[in-house]
Known about the structure:
- It holds the Pfam family UAA.
- Belongs to the nucleotide-sugar transporter family. SLC35B subfamily.
- This is Solute carrier family 35 member B1.
- The chain crosses the membrane at residues 45-64, 84-107, 119-141, 171-189, 201-222, 242-261, 273-299, 319-343.
- Keywords: Endoplasmic reticulum, Membrane, Transmembrane, Transmembrane helix, Transport.
- With 356 residues, this protein is an all-alpha fold.
- It has helices spanning 20-27, 43-70, 85-108, 117-137, 143-150, 154-163, 171-188, 205-231, 235-257, 259-269, 272-322, 328-347; strands at residues 72-73, 80-81.
- The protein has a two-stranded antiparallel ribbon.
Amino acid sequence: CAAPNNSRGAGSGAVSVNIPGLLDDSMAVGKGAGKPASMWDNMRIRFIVCFLGVFVCYFYYGILQETITRGDYGQGDQQEKFRFARTLVLIQCIVSALFAKILIQFFEGSKPDHTKSWLYGLCSLSYLGAMVSSNSALQYVNYPTQVLGKSCKPIPVMILGVTILRKKYPLAKYLCVLLIVSGVALFLYKPNKSSAVADDHVFGFGEILLLISLTLDGLTGVAQDHMRARFQTSANHMMLNINMWSTLVLGLAVLWTGEVWEFLQFTERHPSIIYNILLFGLTSALGQTFIFMTVVYFGPLTCSIVTTTRKFFTILGSVILFGNVMSMMQWLGTILVFLGLGFDAKFGKVPKKTTH
Length: 356
């Protein structure tokens, strides 16, 4: 749930994470000269495992998200929609926190975490807002629009980096962001051909929710960068603590509003959804693990390319599986966005300062 910007996986591109257990394993390769090399020592096989892990987990995650949030439950007059975005994120956070705890036990042991608790609390608020807004947006826009919107994370990250952190970016970064903005504009552009489409909005409530989600994603990224720079916070500790704070905040929220009781009544009427929700949380947590492994073994650039490729095929899968028809202009906009993301991963990185 609380992957460093990717959330969610690695949505904003470069993610600097450190999983000592995995690094120790990779450094140990070659030490046992007499032992036969295992298949995992082959970097090509390792890359295929990481790529398929990210691709399969998040592709299925996307299918489950669209099935849960946009599906029809019941028949006839009894038909209803799923409208419990906060409870869905709460379950996702609980599963991710448990998963992160297991990873820490196996890979990091008793390594201390010096990050201030209140920083995790602040970060969880922006993260939660982004997740709930993103899931709620699916009630108003189709899945390709949501994926494309969430792919625009470099825009708020760059804006907040310039305004809050006073960062300077290379010209290539601005050109990549311009390409992404152009692609989004083409995707959202809907010419008024007749009065029959008068109710078709260009920028409605769903798009506003995506904009809020993106802005909060940018704030989360700034907070996570600060934690990594100041306290050398590991990815697993960040994942655990942000999800624990999120569980606390969301748990109180769903109890206060009574949403949790409505959700339980909904699951009584439609028990099949429980299986999908648990799988949704599990694929999210597993996907984050494969993202961290990709960053550790192959670097943030490779991870950015893998996640960008995955998002494009998620849109393609949504079009094929759920019948979300896209016009030629929307496909052109989609291609421009992912070209911008690819170029940003390759050429848009800020050169590191040598301060020692």
